[in-house]
Write a structure and sequence with these properties.
heterodimer, A: about 525 residues, alpha/beta, Rossmann fold, 3 domains, 6-stranded mixed β-sheet, 22 strands, about 35% helix, globular, B: about 350 residues, mainly alpha, 2 domains, two-stranded antiparallel ribbon, 16 helices, about 75% helix
């Protein structure tokens, strides 16, 4: 493979944003017919390097050679012409256009009388079929699709160009297992046809599954380039972050040691809480100092339950009681005043406000709770920010920059700080660790564990089930818009326990077996296993 | 780094980087053009009883109503909305006050009562906008367009289609009086703009407005009460337009129901844009809006002073504003920056050229 000429050679690339050096002397080489993984934490400079290659980020110094020819004025059109196609982390699609229009935009098939829509739809359908979306109507509006399908449509848009170099920035973060499988198969297919694929993902298993070589970045610097089969997972992780891998393990055992059993009146109790078409009526109890994990697949109802409890969506059935008092949580504002704080899974749409600074973002929810006429004093604001700089390892340089300039992990921390500033009694975190690096993940998980220790009732949702298992005292399992059971966490509970539970659930009958009695938590699991083998 | 060392130059650089910097430059240029035509243009004479008089004072007086509606517009625009009704609200305010004063005695009390009445009526019209936008959920453009059309009709109904005239010395003083040698209207406009500035920046109103303007969904999740905020903002816009209506009618003590405030909403929008507030919502700049309003007034006076034929007036205005918007646009600014950077990088070359 190394005998062939590289299609992309980037050497000594340096990029600065408003005086801050975000890439420092970084190299990247791509050969035709390889899948090359770009690895690093959030803020390592992956997205910037991709931008530099795709022509969206101006390079301060360094050299980019495409097929051996030096490229001077970078630009999106230029890199497109060179056959470099990019699928960005935020899918840049137009929700009001149809699928076919989204796929073909900029590359429309033209006939004698302008755009030939029929041919366009056919071409779009052809590309979509390669991604396993043969049953998707190219005429349907994009806004009707799930995030996962949208992601695949974005990939399809890139494939229309028949690129020589395909850049995939976190293409799988919103996909389920089957969709990931399809996508990886397409990636391999492209590689076999001589395309160079630059693959960026936080899912280490996927990377090892598909990548031939990898380039590792840390803190904007080049760490090294390695063939995938000469590096094992632990080595890779330590190259990316250094030493934090043991800390994750420690966190798990720490959580188990302090395993908390709730007693007394729950902080929040919901009975028959539901909304037609979203979630079947569900009971749930959250107690002081307890972390309740919601586990289930995409679309199982875990996010929907979180949204109903946090006031983001209005329930049409059921009741919510807080400390024994019936409450109405009609809006996120009302929930916050009742000390229920929710962070949704859509960090970008429903989380941080990108144009405001980190400081303003942190203050916002507390300020909204107080009303605009009673502003926080400068001292109070400084105090708040000070607190979270420390506990969340935010950098003081970041605090007065618009949040959109910060990395995903930092944005998530800013959002968490905003919620914590309201001193919630119930904290609902939907995918707080999606798409962020291990260091930031660890910070957030540690912080969540500490909050529970301080008496907050925490709901933790993650599509990475090992995270749920690592953190939770109790796990509520959902499937097909309803709760199918609860598990009291303990040494016997693993990801497999949950997966088996979901797989074994036929019609919700097994619920009785999983009474979340603290003392018998482990026993229930055994009963369940028995049930399975029967 | 240290502020002391480069104090003035740093401050100047800060000013240059402001969006409304070019607005200030444009005002200076227009005045310069007038000065070239008539060297005595900028002269300010002190009339009897120490009042200042002159072209500049006239400009400030004319700017007063525009300043008010521009400040109100600025807040509405920051929420991602727009208020087309301000001109009509001015007409209604004028009609209400003139009708009231026409039947009232010429006392200080009735003058103040007229102002009070204007505040109530214009707040009510603002509230209608607010309800349509925040509760009903209509697009701001449509809601305020409705009030723009209905408002002028309402003004005509109030005066019975007449251009009502009245006499009240107190009311007249608002437009024609002087304090410390400066026109009362201008001082009042500045005072109100300053009060609004303090209101939005000292309270958290400004932050909340920017939050909903930038990302309404995320702001909702942060617990921001969008509905109440929108309602507040349209009422503020209405009241400010009401005051502007008082200013516009008090100088002649006549309301011209079809001319008062006519198309001033467009001037207000221009002033806001010149001041560096994006029509897409989000960050806003009240100082910028005030600068923009003064520029519009300067432009109007200049057109008259230069004797541009009245049919060409709008085109002249348009050219000035297009140039200004070009200078402010991110793309042109970047071009300038690059050129400057390139120039700095090749001083030797320059010397050669110079030699």
């Amino acid at each position: 493979m190394t005998a062939t000429r590289p299609v992309v050679e980037m050497s000594a690339i340096t990029v600065e944003f408003s005086g801050v050096r975000v890439l420092d002397d970084v190299d990247l080489t791509l050969y035709p017919g390889e899948v090359h993984a770009l690895m690093g934490e959030n803020g390592a400079g992956k997205s910037t390097l991709i931008g530099a290659l795709a022509g969206t980020v101006p390079i301060r110094s360094g050299e980019v050679r495409i097929e051996g020819e030096e490229r001077t004025p970078a630009g999106v059109a230029r890199s497109r012409a060179e056959g470099i196609a990019t699928v960005f982390q935020e899918t840049h699609l137009s929700p009001h256009l149809t699928v076919a229009e989204n796929v073909m935009i900029g590359n429309e098939v033209r006939g004698t009388f302008g755009i030939d829509w029929k041919a366009n739809r056919a071409r779009a359908a052809e590309v979509l079929a390669r991604l396993g979306l043969d049953d998707l109507d190219p005429r349907s509006p994009l806004s009707a699709l799930s995030p996962a399908v949208k992601q695949l449509v974005a990939v399809a848009r890139a494939l229309v160009l028949e690129p020589r170099v395909l850049i995939l920035d976190e293409p799988t973060s919103s996909l389920d297992a089957a969709e990931v499988h399809t996508l990886l198969r397409v990636v391999r297919g492209l590689r076999d046809h001589g395309v160079a694929v630059l693959f960026v993902s936080h899912f280490i298993e996927q990377v090892f599954d598909v990548a031939d070589r990898m380039t590792v970045l840390r803190g904007g610097r080049f760490v090294g380039e390695f063939p995938a089969d000469e590096l094992d997972r632990a080595e890779l992780i330590s190259k990316m972050i250094g030493e934090d891998i043991d800390a994750l393990k420690a966190l798990r055992s720490e959580r188990l040691a302090h395993h908390y059993c709730a007693s007394g009146e729950p902080t929040l109790r919901a009975s028959e809480l539901g909304r037609r078409g979203t979630l079947d009526p569900t009971d749930i109890e959250l107690s002081r100092g307890e972390i309740v994990g919601l586990a289930g697949l995409n679309g199982s109802g875990r996010s929907e339950l979180a949204r109903l409890m946090g006031g983001a969506e209005r329930a049409d059935s059921g009741e919510i009681w807080m400390d024994g008092v019936r409450v109405q949580l009609r809006s996120p504002g009302a929930a916050l005043r009742r000390r229920v704080a929710l962070s949704t899974e859509n960090l970008r749409d429903e989380g941080i406000i990108r144009g405001l600074t980190a400081r303003e973002n942190i203050v916002l929810a507390l300020q909204a709770m107080r009303g605009w006429s009673r502003p926080l004093s400068a001292g109070e604001r400084a105090g708040l920010v000070e607190t979270y700089l420390d506990t969340l390892h935010l950098s003081p340089d970041d605090i007065d920059r618009p949040v959109e300039e910060l990395s995903g992990g930092t944005q998530q921390k800013v959002l968490l700080a905003r919620l914590l500033a309201t001193r919630p009694h119930v904290l609902i975190l939907d995918e707080p660790t999606r798409g962020i690096d291990i260091g930031a993940k660890l910070d957030i998980q540690r912080r969540v564990a500490r909050l529970a220790g301080e008496g907050v009732a925490v709901v933790f949702i993650s599509s990475q089930m090992e995270e749920v298992v690592r953190l939770s005292d109790r796990i509520v399992v959902l499937k097909d818009r309803e709760k199918i059971g609860e598990l009291s966490n303990g040494p016997g509970v693993t990801v497999d326990t949950i997966v088996e539970m979901i797989a074994a659930d036929l019609d919700g009958e097994s619920e009785e077996l999983f009474g979340h009695d603290c003392d018998t938590g482990l026993v229930s699991v055994k009963q369940f296993t028995l049930n399975c083998s029967r | 780094m240290s502020a002391n060392a480069h104090g003035p130059s740093e401050a100047l650089k800060g000013l240059v980087r402001r969006q409304y910097f070019w607005g200030i430059v444009a005002i200076a240029l227009l005045l310069l053009v007038n000065l070239v035509k008539d060297p005595g243009y900028l002269a300010v004479s002190i009339g009897q009883s120490g009042n200042l008089a002159g072209n500049v004072i006239d400009i400030l007086r004319a700017a007063a109503p525009i300043i008010l509606i521009a400040v109100g517009m600025c807040l509405v625009v920051s929420t991602g909305g727009i208020d087309l009704s301000v001109g009509s609200v001015m007409a209604v305010a004028g009609a209400v006050s003139m009708e009231f004063l026409n039947g009232a005695s010429d006392t200080v009390g009735s003058g103040l009562a007229a102002v009070g009445l204007v505040v109530i009526v214009s707040a009510a019209l603002g509230a209608v906008n607010g309800v349509l936008v925040s509760v009903v959920g209509l697009q701001p453009f449509i809601s305020t367009l409705v009030i723009m059309l209905a408002g002028r009709g309402l003004a005509k109904v109030i005066t019975g289609g007449q251009n009502t005239t009245a006499t009240n010395e107190t009311f007249r003083w608002i437009a024609n009086g002087y304090v410390l040698g400066l026109p009362v209207v201008f001082l009042l406009a500045l005072l109100l703009a300053l009060l609004m500035g303090l209101l939005v920046r000292r309270s958290a109103l400004g932050l909340m407005l920017e939050a909903i303007g930038m990302d309404a969904k995320a702001a909702r999740l942060a617990g921001v009460n969008r509905r109440a905020l929108l309602f507040t903002v349209y009422i503020l816009g209405g009241v400010l337009a009401g005051f502007a209506g008082v200013f516009a009618t008090a100088s002649v003590m006549t309301v011209d129901v079809s001319r008062t405030g006519y198309q001033l909403e467009l001037d207000a929008i221009l002033a806001v844009v010149i001041g560096g507030t994006s029509l897409a919502g989000g960050k806003f700049n009240i100082t910028g809006a005030v600068v923009g309003a003064i520029l519009i007034a300067t432009l109007d006076k200049t057109v008259v002073f230069l004797g541009v034929s009245s049919s060409a007036t709008p085109a002249f205005k348009a050219v000035v504003i297009v140039v200004l918007c070009l200078l402010q646009s991110e793309r042109v600014r970047r071009m300038f920056r690059q050129r400057r950077a390139a120039g700095a990088a090749r001083p030797a070359e320059r010397e050669v050229v110079a030699a």
